[in-house]
Amino acid sequence: MSRPEELEAIEKRLRRWEETTLRDSLKKQPESRESFVTTSSAPVGRLYTPIDLRGSDPAETLGVPGEFPYTRGIHPTMYRGRLWTMRMFAGFGSAEDTNRRFRYLIDHGETGLSVALDMPTLYGYDTDEVEAKGEFGTCGVAVSSLRDMEVLFHGIDIGAVSTSMTINSPASVIWAMYLANAEKRGVPWTGLRGTIQNDILKEYQAQKEWMFPPEPSMRLVVDTFEFGTEHVPQWNTISISGYHIREAGSTAVQELAFTLANGFEYVRWGIDRGLAIDDFAPRLSFFFNAHNDLFEEIAKYRAARRIWAREMRDTFGAKNPRSWLLRFHSQTAGVSLTAQQPEVNIVRTAVQALAAVLGGTQSLHTNSYDEAFQVPNEKAVRIALRTQQILAHESGVANTVDPLGGAYYVEALTDRMEKEAYDYFDRIQALGGVIPAIRKGFFQQEIANSAYRYQKEIEDKERTIVGVNDFVVDEPSEVEPLRVTKEAFERQVRRLQRLRKERNPKKHAKALNALRKACEGDANTMPFILDAVRAEATLGEVCDVMREVFGVWEEPLLY
Amino acid sequence: MAKKIRVLMAKPGLDGHDRGAKVVARALRDAGMEVIYTGLRQSPEDIVEAAIQEDVDAIGLSSLSGAHMALFPEVVKVLKKRGAGDILVVAGGIIPDDDIPKLKKAGIKAVFGPGTPLADIVAFFRSSAK
User: Fold this and answer.
1) Burial level of A205, CB count in 10 A (0-12/13-18/19+)?
2) Is residue A240 part of a domain?
3) In chain B, which residue's Cα lies nearest the Cα of A249?
4) Domain ranges of chain B
5) B67/A133 touch (CB, cutoff 8 Å), yes or no
6) Nearest-by-Cβ selection for A481 from B70, B96, B119
7) How far apart are CA A532 and CA A525, in angstroms?
8) How many domains would you assign to chain A?
9) Is B112 helix (H, G, I), strand (E, B) or coil?
10) Which residue, A441, B34, B113, A442, is CA-closest to B9?
11) ipTM of the complex
12) Domain carrying residue A404
């Protein structure tokens, strides 16, 4: 914090500047618009100075890296010690197709795996169920049984690599398949590292892949916290995700606020179960979007770390510093990719990835330039991975910790976003908390409003999107297509049919019955789900049992 | 006063990406149309049933998951079977170029991809829905 007399001198100097140099300059060359805004339509000032940070004490708000409140990063040395994990979200077609893609990515220097699952899997249906029609393998890989999981990781050292799986409503079932596969391969659970997304709250708010109503869903989530703490201690049992909130149209502040509010809700449910906060909080992880506006994104990550650390320590009383750390994965903004002049997306993604790195991300996925059309082809994915490698090894940005720390604009933006997040926490609380606010459609309406405003800004040319509403060329977009093959579908269906024929029917029925009883009571469901997948119950069968006991969610309709 | 155009905005299949459908629904509403949103996870039969119940002039289908070929033509087929083949069917989402002629042949009157101006979509509904 600058001393009062210093601030006074700066203010005086600025006033003089405004009355002379600035005034003369504006007379000769007025600014190009009346107001400047971020990607989230938040106002941006002309110049930021120590005056904007008045009242904020950097010793307290910034501290040092690796110490509370972690604004400058969670590790003392950040990328000088170890680079972020380059983790490319991948999955399409059958388990064989995706296994091949995983090996390709590892061969090209990827350092962590991330599994994209297809729509039926995300909704707890098997590939050959009627609800799955037309959706096999298009948005990710189909995993309907333990056998699919075995094929998916065939030849990959699951004891060494960390694996993230984007799965939510049926997260415990897919995780159980991963654990059962490790068991069969003789890899001890204590050595497994990875993440299940398992963040159901943002599903109701944004991503919309749900099965059950909120309360039983939250029970399943806490079951994984409890089970993981005891048996799979290095596993992140949740990735509390703002990514999809942002993709659905929210602003950066809404992404920040809703994600953290969801995080606090999980903590409350864990505590209500009787878990000790310092037992499970260190395994909570986060996932944020990296959108177009470089500084707004960087400020968002920094604010997120500070808020989480403070609330975990001061509101929830966590004692272990590991409980205070907000560790996060980031992904560049899929929604920002254009179908027009698709190669230009490579540049967009590079800028977004830079934001994630300057914001101190722990792992990163960079989107491929063809993703406005399809799940990416091999060449596009390789360029996306190379983008991270250039940032890591050529750009120099990884050489020092939090290089933008102390920048007046970034610090002022960090402070403002933090404050605006707290305003949202108050509004959510006034609605009765996260789950009542979901039932009222609060988050959904806030997100839809922001999405519509953003689109209107593009429509009215208040916002320029290169190649879409300006700098347009009249030429077809050329992208090498990637199609899911009929053979992949048939292979998958054959494997499922074989499994249903070959498995032990008695063991299978017994396991599903035991699971039903567990769901009806209040036992931790994880051991029962594990037994069911060991008995080769399919994803759809396990989820049917749970749907029957828990019921299904109907969302409030609004737009 | 001319009768307001009534539109059913529908999400067939399992796709949860509803940003586009909602933005278009709102643009049509702001342009003076009456819009009914089905919500997610509708089968072609659900969509046709809602369209008939709500007596709409047009249906907007949105899918970003790649299931459009399995689901969009089916909606037109069921509409015809139910004697409602006069309802305009329009689609949007992530639709590869190669699929567009096939969808049009199946009776989808227009396909709007990413980056389409809302004004173009509104204009199409205005000129084509009766």
Assistant:
1) buried
2) yes
3) B19
4) 6-128
5) yes
6) B96
7) 11
8) 1
9) strand
10) B34
11) 0.94
12) 59-459
